[in-house]
Structures are given as structure tokens and as C-alpha cells.
Amino acid sequence: MSLRTRKSLGKRLLALRTTAKLTHRDLELIGSKAKLSRIESGKQSIRQIEVEAWCSLCGADDSTKAALVEMSKNARSEGWWEAFDRDVMPPWFASYVELESEVASLRTYHPGVVHGLLQIEAYQRAIFAADRDLPQVEQQVAARLRRQQAAFNRESPLYITAVIDEGVLRRQVGGPDVMAQQMDHLRAMNTKPHVDVHVLTFEAGAHLAMRGGFTLLEYEAPDDPSMVFLETDAGSRYEERATTLERYGNIFKDIHSRSTPLERLKE
């Protein structure tokens, strides 16, 4: 179920009710005040028949009604990540990949590993195998490969701008052969119009991202605010405050300006 679509639908339904100058009591045919509030805040999904009733009560025209009904179908559809159990796809990460499936672009930096969307299978397996507490290694790999397919095989492929620390490329994850294959894959991906890979070399010196990695998730629609995703071993958190977004935007500009395009990187 798409959280972003559900929130967007709720916002549209709220606007429709407000424009019609109706209260929750006027829509009690659909449900209680608490239920209607949850729908409008995106905390609860809504059935197609309820959307149709909402539109009728609010006097929506046919085109508006059709658009909202279509949104309700999308909001109730299952995501690919729901096929994996919680050990493989814990709730905090399922929430992230759900957002990743909806954004138009990512700007990301990680000082420890190649970004998951750019990893080859052997590199993934070496990372997962290194964590003895991590169950179902092959399922972990399968989930990550499925994530890559979802990001890059959709109608409008996800645009990713990745800054990779040089230390990541020098670390022999899986051994020299695996890293050689990983580098070949990065170069191949970097030729695609929706992938931009830069390397933050040791010569770049001190920079603003030395406290850790982060990902900026950015939507195409201007009324859908961007957010910052911060991951730790204990889970993750999101930041949507304007001041925080501005700070991380400036951090990324700093490291991007200091980094070298992969195609110009010396062997």
C-alpha cells in the first residue's frame, strides 16, 4: 500500500470536502468522524465505493471523481516488498523502499558501501554474509535485486545521483574479482541517462558529510516535499523540516562539487 499515494489522496479528499463546505457529520454515511479524519490525514486507506460516495456528497465533477477513484486503487495496491517476510524486509526498511518506489530522484552519499541500487549480486552476498546475525542471505539478495528492478524498470526510471567515497571502492568486499566486477557494473550503470556516479577521492580532503551518509528523496510534483533519509544499525529516521532539507542539500552540493565523475576517475 502506497503511503505517499494515500496521503495525497487524503489531501485531495479533504480539499474536496472543504470546498463543498461540508463537515464530517455531512459524510457520516461513509464512516465516523475519527475514520474520516484518518482518511484525510493519510493514516487509513479508503475503498473505491467510499471514494465514489465522498465525491457524490461533495458534488465533484466526473473528471475529479474518476481521478480520485484511480488514486484509491493505487493506494490499496500491494507493493513488491510485501512478498518478503519481516526478517528480510523489516518495517522500517519496507517504509523506505515504498517511498523509494514513488520518488522521481535520489541524491545519496554513503561512506561505507556502494548504494544498494548499484550493487552487483556478488557484492550484496558478501555484505550480507559478513553479518552473522542476518538471516536468509539469499532472500536478502533476492529482495535487493527486486528493488533494483523496481527502481530502474519502471516507466520513468528513478534518477540517482550517487557520491561514493573512494574508500568504498578500495575496500575488497568479496575479494578482488568481485570488486572488479562491481567497478565494471558502476561504469556500465553510469552510462545510463538516469544514473550519475561521482567518487569523493581522498584528495578531496575534509568535507561537510564526514558525519555520515544520507539520502535525499525528491518528488517530481512541487507540492510533494522532499525528505532526508538517515539510516543506522538501529533503524532509520526521516527529516522533512525546511531548514534540515536545506542543510543536507548544501552538504550534498559540497561533496558533489568536490567529487570526480566516475568516467574521469583514474585507475
Give the tags.
seven-stranded mixed beta sheet, 267 residues, Endonuclease, Chain A, alpha/beta, 434 Repressor (Amino-terminal Domain), 2 domains, 46% helix, elongated
Q: What level of helicity do the residues show?
A: 40-55%
How much of the sequence is in beta strands?
5-15%
- Give the CA-CA distance, first to last residue: 44 Å
Rough outline: elongated
Supply the number of helical segments. 10
Assembly context of the chains: single chain
| CATH fold-level label of the largest domain | Endonuclease, Chain A
SSE order, one letter for each helix or strand: HHHHHEHHEHHEEEEHE
In total, the number of domains comes to 2
Which value, in Å, is the CA radius of gyration?
22 Å
Low-confidence stretches: none
CATH class of the largest domain: Alpha Beta
What strand line-up does the widest sheet have? 6-5-4-1-2-3-7
Helix/strand-derived class? alpha/beta
